[in-house]
Amino acid sequence: KFRKQFTRRCWFFLFVTILLYLILASRFAYLQIFQYDELVTKAEANRKTETAHPPRRGIIMDKNGEVLATNDPIYTLEITPAKTPNFNQTIKELQKVISISKGDIRRFNRLKDELPRLSPVPVKSGLTDEEVARFTAQSWRFPGVEVRSRMHRFYPAGKDAAHVVGYIGRISQRDQTRLEESGRGNDYTGTLNIGKTGIELSYEDVLHGKPGFEQIEVRASGRPIRSLSMTQPQSGNNLVLTLDMGLQREIMKELGDRRGTVIAIEPANGDVLAFVSNPSFDPNLFVDGIDQETWDSLNQDEDKPLMNRALRGTYPIGSTFKPFMALAALEMKVRDPKRVINDNGHFQLGNHVFRDSTRGRGYGPVDMHRSIVVSSDVYYYSLAQDMGIDRIHDFMKPFGFGQITGIDLVGEARGILPSREWKQRRFKQRWAQGDTISIGIGQGYNAFTILQLAHAVATLANDGIVMKPHLVKKIINSKTGEEEIVAKDPVDVIPLKKENVN
Predict the structure, then answer these.
(1) pTM here?
(2) How far apart are CA 385 and CA 335, in angstroms?
(3) pLDDT tens digits for 396-415?
(4) Contact assessment for residue 458 and residue 403, using Cβ atoms and an 8 Å cutoff
(5) Among 319, 357, 371, 376, which one carries the catalytic annotation?
């Protein structure tokens, strides 16, 4: 009996053993045959890691070759929040090794909330060689912290060209979302900055370039062994502007501390030679993320240095409107240029008196030529009444008043070229005859940008040939050196009689 029981147990254990071997063999077969490709891919992924190398951003120069935006190599100390257990404690420990200011910490805390958790966040930029050496010697103590060599954007002209060139800043969550939606997210792998204003924003796609990728073989611990393959980053293209920095600085000097804007356009081709908005600011403050104290100071300044008056400010342009009124009268044969109007200092419409700047003295008898020389308000009050708002609106529109000029800067204001339809839409009111009178001297509902005024004057000086104003003259391919001229052909021609222009 005992022998039979022992034999049964032996057979049972043999059966179990064979069954286990069959299960193990089938598992090996399954892994080796059916999951081979997937497991090899995973093994390769564990053995390899890919590192992105951001491209060098394109250089921006003025028409004479003066560099307005360039790249300087610097060392940055960066923390990846997802890889750092307690970054507040980590920063305290880092302060024992490297000097980190309260401003650096405030900027880090703001950026870590804006950037994805897997993105490295700079805690200090511009490390010295000594600071790099001190950190490297103790880097093992700081998981998720590393020193990187990056290209730092620098604006040598500072505030003199800030509103034209603009600046770059950290890629925000909103920027990242926009890049992903446009299918360009992969082009910004490893890149921390993006154009925020000015030419840096308008020509972001041209200036940015494409990143390179390096495959590195690593140990199980994650330490690199060797580089397996690498594609070099493709630098962004360079830009040559139409801007003349000599002229730009001369204008800034003349304006001094006064608020204002000055635009100079070459009529024959639309080149913007000067584009000044004063007061200005230093764009270098924004590259690494501006600190809160400086940001508040710029925002609360009553002179509004961050406002691009040349692009976004709208104003009643006053007497600079009068030559266009005179040309409209000639083209439409509303008034003979030799007809004399008695300027007695005021113009009456019904019970309302429109006075001029001479406080009632007036200029006496004036024809069209003298009306422009002395800037007679009364002459243009009466001319506006003779023309009517519809004809004024239709004549001024092709010159670009109240229209987007299409200059290569983002954020251009449209302004207001008033009409019957505009007032009805805006105020739900009918146009009154009295509304027209002030329009004739560039006041009333008129609200134009100084860019529109400069564009209109350039068109007049170019005998009605409309050239789109532009700030970028040519794009230089960083790889081939080929040059692409940005703007060259007229966009419209206003049919004006030569004798009337003269």
Answers:
(1) 0.82
(2) 12
(3) 999 999 999 999 999 999 99
(4) no
(5) 319
